[in-house]
Amino acid sequence: MNIAIIPARGGSKRIPRKNIKEFCGKPMIAYSIEAAQKSELFDKIVVSTDDDEIATVAQYYGADVLQRPKALADDITPTIPVIAHAIETLNMKNLHSVCCLYATAPFVQPKYLQEGYEKLKSTQSAYVFSATTYAFPIQRAIKLKNDRVEMFSPENFAVRSQDLEEAYHDAGQFYWGMPEAWLEEKIIFAPHSTAIVLPRHLVQDIDTSEDWVRAELMYKALYENADTK
Q: Is residue 229 scored above 50 in pLDDT?
């Protein structure tokens, strides 16, 4: 038995009501629910929330709702305890795997959810999560200090880009995990985990108003007048 848990608290500060704000014609959370449904992987799709309006929208799009306690719905609560709480509360029998699917992931695609699940089974990892490559070598990153430029790694100034090791970052879409990994609150970014690498054009953090505008432009360029999702 597999379940998807979508954490969606009501107190977003930088983009108010972000989880249910309209994005290209639908509430943001609808994209995650629909991707989970289309993947045909889940016996149950659950939205963990402290917010009645989010709960109503989630149910409209076909998800179940789990009431999240206020203690797990503030600005500083990390994701893993929220997923652990949902697993413990649901107390489902024969639970094989749990996928944390973010509510603000309009680019998530069923095929990558399926690839993540297959990789979780085949590699026996604690977690399998979505990642993508950095567009620029991180070894040649710079910082501004007192309005002057410094390299984080000056020894790499003359090294060709193609000779530097490729680096990856969390794509912020989905995190498959074994139930015991969530319950033991194992960290995700560790050797017991592996990743599904997404193309960069399907990855966009949405934390600011500028991010939101960029994401909508990307979505329209990808999907308007095209049956690709």
A: no
Cβ distance 117 to 41 under 8 Å? yes
Beta bridge partners of 100: 5, 175
For the sheet with 168-177, list strands across it: 64-67, 44-49, 2-7, 97-101, 168-177, 127-133, 193-197
Closest CA to 44 of 13, 89, 76: 89
Give SS3 for 178. Answer: coil
* Residue 172 C-alpha from the chain's centroid: 3
2-132+168-223 has which CATH code?
Answer: 3.90.550.10
**Composition of the chain by helix, strand, coil, percent to 5:** 35, 25, 40
Residue 223, pLDDT score? 86
**DSSP 3-state of 152:** coil
> Residue for token digits 């503030």?
74
What pLDDT digit, counting tens, does each position of 120-173 carry?
999 999 999 999 999 999 999 999 999 999 999 999 999 999 999 999 999 999
Give the single-character DSSP code of 198. Answer: P
Cβ count within 10 A of residue 171? 26
Give the tens place of pLDDT for each residue, 34-45. Answer: 999 999 999 999
